[in-house]
């Protein structure tokens, strides 16, 4: 027996010293002082041992342990034998506890049932949870400790009780097949319940055996809970308490909108709320009320949490900032004259083209005039794609220089995507709708209705993928053709209703509405025109047919954000400022204070010359552009 003991004591230091990272510890009847020396060599700690520290120990271990586990095991061995370690500066003291004498007396009666220390690994359950279950079973002499990093349990107890503990651990430490479950909610929101439960979980997330996990299934308003059965049982209880019926009224929440109008999205939300109630008739017992407060632009929802949560998600997707569209237009009439004259008109062509000289003019001035005739104008309808931003301004300048072109309006307006914009330039004209003559009263009783007469343009843009814009255009030009009484007014109307697709920052031309009028003009010289036969030489009559073709140039520009809007605004501002510099007179400030400077310089305008108009941008030679060139030929303007 002595040889065996000496061999174990001699072998122990060599065994531990030869293991660098891990060791398997099995000790039988080893002196406590020998273990203290070995721990000092392994950990590098210095110990001051009280002379009263004595005894022999037994340790059984089936798995390798590292240095930290070995020192933790050493502290547990000392504690079960009635000793404590007091940490000091550079050394540690090993002293008996205050009740060492009582414990020694009790331990002396356990000669036939020795105390054993063992390390038991736990595979499927958290070691800290296993400690809570085993603590009532441990003997009054035993000790339990959990080492969380390796999920192991250190047990110090009698050999007989240790066998019983192992059986219990083996029964509890079994693999769980169904380690998750679904927990549907009826009244509460799964998202809100998950936040509450997660806030109650312990912050120590180092447990490696079946940690509790909570996932949210928003579509079905349920929780997916994974983990140990004991943990899931607690979560199930919390879910049941939190998912209680809130009563008939439900919860009331107020959501303030940032971009959308409350009254515009209210019908959509009410329809969705009604649909949710229909789908969950059995589970949803509360009423759902959704109202809009226009004063604060807010949505007020009174509904169960599950319905309110779904409606909030819909609001978050609807309440977004939409892009804007700048719509510039030119509405012009192109006249095509066909004149038939009868008689003699004293007239010649002047140096600028057409220059009729009336009878009241000087004959010498007529003789001195030149007789060069300008080209006729042929107009074709089509689409003009501008390669630069100055293309639209070039069209406006060229049209304004044409003698046979009447620019009716050049409106410009900004509207939100999918919102209709309306421009009206005209006047309200009264029309008699009813006339009643009362007996005894010479003045009849009349009812009037005022109607808008003039130029009306309605445009509704819709931004699609690829920076293309769908435009729903409604153009109307109306005028009073006679100047009679309100009951005899006759109006003419020309309208265009169409839907087109155009790319961002491109120009679309619409037209083809032709209005034909006939003007008859008679002129003569008094007295001379009344002479028989010879008087015909001093008379002049003409019949002029005027055809007016309505052209509409549309130029849309997408304003995706505030930076793009500022850039476009600054370009328009610079255009007006440069025109004022050219024409002289009063000027705007060089740059408005509330608009940042544009990094890209705007297109420079050409210096105008007398009786000339030059295009600021070269035009490609294709079929679509050729029609525009024929409208204002190069020879006439260059």
UniProtKB/TrEMBL annotation:
GO terms for cellular component: cell outer membrane; type II protein secretion system complex. Residues 117-175, 183-245, 253-324 form the NolW-like domain. Residues 597-620 are annotated as: Disordered. Keywords: Cell outer membrane, Membrane, Protein transport, Signal, Transmembrane, Transmembrane beta strand, Transport. GO terms for biological process: protein secretion by the type II secretion system. It is found in: Cell outer membrane. InterPro entries: Bact_Secretion_Sys_Channel, GspD-like_N0, GspD/PilQ, NolW-like, NolW-like_sf, T2SS/T3SS_dom, T2SS_GspD. Its main location: membrane. Residues 398-559 form the Type II/III secretion system secretin-like domain. Residues 25-94 form the GspD-like N0 domain. Pfam families: Secretin, Secretin_N, type_II_gspD_N0. Residues 598-615 have a biased composition (Polar residues). Belongs to the bacterial secretin family. GSP D subfamily. This is General secretion pathway protein D. It comes from hydrothermal vent metagenome. The lineage of its organism: unclassified sequences, metagenomes, ecological metagenomes.
